[in-house]
Amino acid sequence: MNRQKRLKQVFFYAALTIFCHVNLVDNLYSQHPADVSLKEAFKHDFLIGTALSTRQIDGRNKAETQLIKANFDAVTPENLMKAHALQPRWGQFNFEQADEFVAFAASNQMKVNGHTLIWHSQLPGFMQHMENADSVRQYFVGHIRTVASRYDGKVDSWDVVNEALNEDGTLRNSIFLRALGEDYIVEAFRLAQEAAPNTKLYYNDYNIEQPSKRAGAIALIKKIQAAGVRIDGVGIQGHWHVGRVPMEYIEQSIQEFAALGLEVMFTELDLSVLPNPLRGNSAELSQTEQYNKRLNPYTDGLPDSVAEAQAEDYGKLFGLFLKYREDVSRVTFWGVYDGGSWLNNWPVRGRTNYPLVFDRELKPKPAFHRIIAAKYDQE
Length: 379
What we know:
CATH class: Alpha Beta
CATH architecture: Alpha-Beta Barrel
Number of strands: 9
Number of helices: 12
Shape: globular
Strand content: 5-15%
C-alpha cells in the first residue's frame, strides 16, 4: 500500500471516529426531554437548590431570573442572612434584605434554607475582639432567638451551626468555644429548637466526607441527640476539584449520617477546574493566596477536555445522589452560573473559574447535560 492510500485510510477512520462520537452524544441527549430543567428532572428525588445574592432576587436581570425560576426549587442566601448582615450593630437588626429574600422564594414556590445562625466567620464588627464570656453568651442567645423565631414557618430549615470542626474532627478554636465551652453547639440547637419549632435544624460543614472530620461530625451529632435536642440533618458542602472528587468517602458519609436518622444534604456544591494553591481541600475563607498566572490558566475559555472531565465528575456525583435518593433530601449548587461563583475570587482573587453547570452566558454546560443524563439513564 502506498503512502497516499495509507493517509486516506487514516483520515477516513479519524473522520468515522469523530462522526460516531458526535452521533453518540447527540443520541444520548436526544433521549432526554430537550427543555427539561434541573428541578423538573429531579422532582421525585430531591430538591435542587442554589445560593443567591441580593442582586439576584431583584429581578433586574430577566434572563438570570428566568434561569433561577426554571431550574431551582430551593434557595440559600449566600451572605444576606449571615450575622454581620442581620445584626450589624449590637442589638440592632436589619431584616429588610432577608425579608425580601424570603418573599422572593415564597412567590416562586421555593424552599429557603437559612444560612447561618452561628459561625465563627463574617461576624458583626463588634464581635471581633470580644472575649468576655457574658457578652458572648448574651449575643449568642439573643441572635439565635431573634432570628430563628422571626423566620419560623417562613424558612424550611436553618444551618444552625456552620463549620465548627477542624480537619482532624476536633472543635475549632472559635470565639464561641473559648467563651462558652464545648457545649455551645448543643446549646445552639436547643435555642433554635425552642425559637423555631416548625423549622428543620441542620449542621453544615466542609470536608466532613473525609474520615477524620466525619468522625468528629458524627460524635458531635450524637452528643446533640444524647442531650435530647433536635437535629434534623447534616449538610456536606461539596467544594471539590475536578479529577479529585472523593466518591468513596462521599458514599460512606451518606450511609453513616443517614444511619443516625438524619437527612443528608449537599449544600454548597461546585467543582473547581483551577489549580488549588492550598494544602488540602479547605474552604476556610481566611486562607488566601496571591495571584499569579500559573494559577489562572483558562482566562480565554474552558478547554473542551476540561469541560468533559468536569461533566464526568458531575454525572458520577448525581448518579450517587440518585442511588441514595431516600437519604439525600437536597442538592444545592453554590451559585447559579460560572461568572457569579465565589471561586473566581477565592482563594486567589481575580481568577477565571468555571465550577458550575451554567456558563457566563447562562447557557447549560456539558456538566448540565451529564447531570440530566444521570437521571434519565437510570429509568
